[in-house]
Write a structure and sequence with these properties.
This protein is α+β, with helices and mostly antiparallel strands. Helix 9 runs antiparallel to helix 11. The longest helix has 33 residues. Strands 2-1-5-4-3 form a five-stranded antiparallel beta sheet, sandwiched between helices. The protein has a five-stranded mixed beta sheet with strand order 7-9-10-12-11.
Length: 459
C-alpha cells in the first residue's frame, strides 16, 4: 500500500492553484472594474494591476513552508523520535536510554517495572540508588566507554542483576553527532540459583544422606555374612533397610522440590487458582494418616471461591506439609483444625489466612525463630522416627516467599501450635474477579468505539 507524501505548493497543478485563488481574482476584478468606471484608473493600468495580483496568487511561494519546516527541525530532536522510542520499547530486557547528562530519554515497560522511580527527563541517578549502578554510570558518562556492573537487588526478593552501559552515537538537531548512554539490565538470578542449588545439594546430600547410606551398607554386609541363613534377622533387617530407603527417597524429593522453588523465587505466579479445592484435596489425601494417628481433622472453609495468583502444585505441597506436620507431631491432641479467614495485614490491607492448628505438646519459644531453617528439628529422634526430613517448613517458607506471602507460627507448650499461611492482598473472590474483568472489557470496547467514531469524523 503506497503512502502519499504531503503535497507542497510547487507540486500542485495549475488547476488546483486557480481554484484556490478564484475568490481573490474575482474580488480584484470587481474592485478594478469599479475604479475604472469611476474614471480613477485607465483600462490599461487596471489590466496591469490585475495581472500582478493574479501572478501573486498563482505563482507558488515556499517562504512560509521553508520557515515552518525549519521550526519543526528545531523543535524535534532525532533521539526523541517515535522510531527510537519504539526500538527501546521493543527490547526484551529492561532498557533505558540516557543523554550525556544522565537524564532519561526513553525507557521500556520492563525497565519501568524494575525501577518504578524512573521518569522521563529526570536524572537516572535519583531513581537507581545502587552504588554499583551510580559508579558505573558516572564512569561511562565521563569516559564515553562501555561499563558493566553486577549488583544484588533485595526488593521484593533477592535478584542478581547485570548492568551493561553502552555509549550510542546519535545525530544532533543541526547535523552533528553526540553520544547517549543505553543501559540494559540482564537478570542473572536463574544462573546464580543453579549454582547455589548445586552447592547446597552437594552439601546437604553429603550431610543428611550419610546416615541412611551407612545403615543400608551395614545391613547389606550383615545379610551377606552372619545373618545370611537367619530368616528372622533377615526379615528384621530388610524392614529397617526399607525404612532407610524410604527416608532417602523423601529427603531427595524434598531437596529437589526446595531447589525448584528457590530457582523461580523471583518470578511471582500469575495464574489465578482457587484455594478451597486445593485444601480439600490435601485433607482427603491425608485422611488415612489421620485415621492411623486417631486424629480428627476439622475443615472450616467459606462457601464462595477464594482466588489468588499462585502455582497449584506448590500450594498443594505447602498445605500438605503443614497438615501432615500437625497430624504427626500434634497427634497427642487428637484434633487438628484447618480454617480459612481474611484479615487485616500489617499495612492495613486485607489478606487471606489459612490456619492449621493442632492441640499437641506445642513448641518451646526458643525453637520458634529457627523452625524454617533447613534440617532444623526440635527433637531429632522424634523427627526421624516420624519420617521427617527437616525440610518441610523451609519449603513452606520459600513457597510463601514466591507467592509474596508470609508464615506466622504461634505456640504455647502443652497447648498446641498454630501455623498460618498468609497470602498477599489484592486478590478478590472468583465472582469479583469475573465482574471486574467484564467491566474492564466493557470500558475497552467503549473506548475503541469512540476512537473509531472520532477518526471517521475527522476523515
Amino acid at each position: 500500500m503506497a503512502i502519499d507524501a504531503p503535497s507542497s505548493p510547487t507540486a500542485q497543478p495549475w488547476s488546483d492553484r486557480l481554484r484556490h485563488s478564484t475568490i481573490i481574482l474575482i474580488a480584484a476584478a470587481l474592485a478594478l472594474s469599479v475604479v475604472v468606471s469611476l474614471g480613477e484608473l485607465s483600462v490599461l493600468h487596471a489590466v496591469a494591476v490585475f495581472l500582478c495580483i493574479a501572478a501573486a496568487a498563482l505563482i507558488p511561494w515556499r517562504l512560509h513552508d521553508t520557515a515552518a519546516s525549519r521550526d519543526d527541525v528545531r523543535r524535534i530532536n532525532p533521539v526523541e523520535s517515535a522510531a527510537v522510542a519504539a526500538v527501546v520499547a521493543g527490547m526484551p530486557d529492561p532498557a533505558v536510554l540516557l543523554d550525556r547528562a544522565g537524564r532519561v530519554i526513553h525507557l521500556n515497560a520492563a525497565a519501568a517495572q524494575l525501577a518504578p522511580a524512573l521518569r522521563r527527563n529526570e536524572l537516572a541517578q535519583f531513581a537507581l540508588r545502587s552504588p554499583e549502578i551510580i559508579t558505573a554510570l558516572r564512569e561511562s558518562i565521563a569516559t564515553t566507554e562501555p561499563r558493566r556492573a553486577t549488583y544484588l537487588d533485595h526488593v521484593p526478593v533477592d535478584r542478581w542483576m547485570e548492568l551493561i552501559i553502552t555509549p550510542v552515537p546519535v545525530p544532533t538537531t543541526f547535523g552533528g553527532a553526540d553520544k547517549c548512554m543505553l543501559m540494559t539490565f540482564h537478570d542473572q538470578t536463574p544462573l546464580r540459583r543453579v549454582e547455589e542449588m548445586r552447592a547446597d545439594f552437594v552439601a546437604n546430600a553429603s550431610h543428611e544422606l550419610r546416615t541412611p547410606l551407612a545403615a543400608l551398607s551395614g545391613f547389606i554386609d550383615t545379610l551377606q555374612g552372619q545373618a545370611k541363613d537367619d530368616p528372622k534377622a533377615r526379615e528384621r533387617f530388610l524392614g529397617i533397610m526399607h525404612n532407610q530407603a524410604t527416608r532417602m527417597a523423601r529427603l531427595i524429593d524434598d531437596l529437589l522440590s526446595l531447589s525448584r522453588v528457590e530457582l523461580s523465587a523471583h518470578v511471582r505466579p500469575d495464574t489465578l487458582v482457587d484455594l478451597l479445592p486445593i485444601i480439600r484435596q490435601v485433607a482427603d489425601g491425608l485422611e488415612p494418616l489421620a485415621r492411623e494417628r486417631q486424629v480428627e481433622v476439622e475443615i472450616h472453609l467459606p462457601e464462595p471461591p477464594v482466588m489468588i495468583a499462585g502455582d497449584r502444585e506448590e500450594l498443594l505441597r505447602l498445605f500438605e506439609n503443614l497438615i501432615e506436620n500437625a497430624l504427626k507431631y500434634g497427634a497427642s491432641g487428637g484434633r487438628v483444625i484447618v480454617s480459612l479467614t481474611s484479615g487485616a495485614a500489617t499495612d492495613g490491607t486485607q489478606e487471606i489466612r489459612v490456619m492449621v492448628r493442632d492441640f499437641g505438646p506445642g513448641i518451646a519459644p526458643e525453637h520458634l525463630p529457627r523452625l524454617t531453617e533447613r534440617f532444623y528439628r526440635v527433637d531429632v529422634g522424634d523427627s526421624r522416627l516420624q519420617g521427617g526430613t527437616g525440610l518441610g517448613l523451609s519449603l513452606v517458607k520459600h513457597i510463601l516467599n514466591r507467592h509474596r506471602g508470609r508464615l506466622l507460627i504461634e505456640s504455647v507448650p502443652k497447648q498446641g501450635a498454630t501455623f498460618t499461611a498468609c497470602f498477599s492482598p489484592g486478590q478478590g473472590s472468583g465472582d469479583d474477579m469475573k465482574l471486574k474483568r467484564f467491566q474492564l472489557l466493557v470500558v475497552v470496547i467503549r473506548l475503541s468505539r469512540n476512537l473509531r467514531k472520532s477518526t471517521a469524523d475527522r476523515s
